[in-house]
Amino acid sequence: MGLFTPKYPKSDTPGADSSSGGGARRETRAERRDREARTSSARRKASVERQFQAAERASKERTASFWDRYERRNGTGSVDWN
Q1: The predicted structure's pLDDT at residue 2
Q2: How far is Cα 38 from Cα 45, in angstroms, rounded to an integer?
Q3: Can you give the pLDDT at residue 25?
Q4: Relative to the CA of 48, which of 1, 14, 20, 29 has its CA 20 to 30 Å away?
Q5: CA–CA distance, 35 with 23 (Å, rounded to integer)
Q6: Residues near 11 by Cβ (< 8 Å), separated by ≥ 6?
Q7: What is the pTM of this model?
Q8: How far apart are CA 73 and CA 55, in angstroms?
């Protein structure tokens, strides 16, 4: 570093003026926590939705299997579906 050059480049200086060619402003802890909470919440919601759909599908398969076995044992038409 030369005699008149800054010790730290502008982009690394906290609170540096972002209008002087720098990038986006740094994210605060609160903003980061909020963003992470939103993404984890969305991830959790999607996971619960997938689990619900899988449970619903498994339930329908078990029900269909039960009635197939029932009709095989008791003969077709033993249940009035109307």
Answers
A1: 65
A2: 10
A3: 87
A4: 29
A5: 20
A6: 22, 23
A7: 0.50
A8: 27
> How far apart are the C-alpha atoms of 36 and 38, rounded to whole Å?
5
The one-letter code for the residue type at 64 is A
Where b means 16+ CB within 10 Å and e means fewer, 38-68 reads eeeeeeeeeeeeeeeeeeeeeeeeeeeeeee
Successive 10-residue mean pLDDT values, the chain, 82 residues: 67 56 79 91 94 98 93 82 66
In this structure, are residues 19 and 10 in contact, taking their beta carbons and an 8 Å threshold? no
Q: What Rg value do the Cα atoms of the chain yield, rounded? A: 31
Integer angstrom CA distances of residue 18 from 9, 11, 51: 13, 8, 45
